Amino acid sequence: MKILALFDLAHAVDPSQDFSPESLKEQDKPTEASVLECLTRLGHDVETLAVFDNVPAIVEKLTAYAPDLVFNLSESFHHDRSHEPNIPALLDLMKVRYTGAGPDALLLCKDKALAKKVLAYHRVHSPNFVVSRQSHPLRHLSRFNYPAFVKPVGEESSDGISKASFARDEAEALERMRYIHQKFNCDVLIEEYIEGRELYLSVLGNHRLTVFPPREIFFEQVPEDTPKFATYHAKWNEKYRKKWGITNGPAKPLPDRMPERLGQLAKKVYRLLNIRGFGRIDVRLSPKGDVFVIEANPNPSLAEDEDFAQSAANAGITYDTLIQEILNAALA
Predict the structure, then answer these.
(1) Positions of E strands within 145-270
(2) Is the pLDDT assigned to residue 294 strictly greater than 90?
(3) pTM exceeds 0.90
(4) What is the C-alpha to C-alpha distance for residues 219 and 91, in angstroms, rounded to an integer?
(5) At how many degrees (to 10) do helices 86-93 and 55-65 cross?
(6) Which CATH architecture has domain 195-331?
(7) Fewer CB within a 10 Å sphere, N or C end of the chain?
């Protein structure tokens, strides 16, 4: 097929500039590099387009190249992630097929509070929460059950999450809330902290869904009495991960029937939030065996060494097969 690999950069570039896997790695774009290498191996005719703030360039490229499919790897526009849903919306208007989620799922899941309300309506367990609006910040949290977890409503990839996100009381929660309001210029989600294991459930497909074996994040050298959760550094800072023995891998043994239960839950959340193509559902498993949905992630990272691809590999699916299945889902 003729495939246009569409992705974003944090600065303007010439729309005619073509990118190779090597140049993408230099731009710190491992997912884009992995996907581009794979599409070439699969024998597709691939061209690239990097976008920053140029809508006409997208329209002109789609018109001139006329791809059979767009492999949508864009996550921002004007270096602003709130615009992520607008790229697939444009592709919809131009009647171009593309991989991954549509604008509806991206809009819904990017507002973590709204997604939680939808899940709560359908009786999906999620931590109790309140939202502090930037226009009217909360002044009190006296009736909240502590400890709490404080994070931006719309950020992704653990942006805005640090050790200070864990709040033991009202004073700590309000202090972190005010910091996020000021730093990220956004609303703040304050939710009940769930002690337990953090699991990642990868889902592939549109109507007939496949859930890959769960992945788990491990904190081998973090003190036993320290809260364990995926901060920004715990996800992306290799020196920090090595220092504290933080790794991601196949989930350790789960209680009887828990894998089936997790699979059913992942499919339910995926469908309720209108995700298609591929997505990841993040959950917490408490010591009592209760499962809480933390958030849903349409279009998670597809780098070959990241959780989604590794979860597929745990199921015996090679990276090339996985990327082709994502293409097939877009064509369907």
Answers:
(1) 148-152, 166-167, 188-192, 197-205, 210-211, 215-219, 246-250
(2) yes
(3) yes
(4) 41
(5) 40
(6) 2-Layer Sandwich (3.30)
(7) C
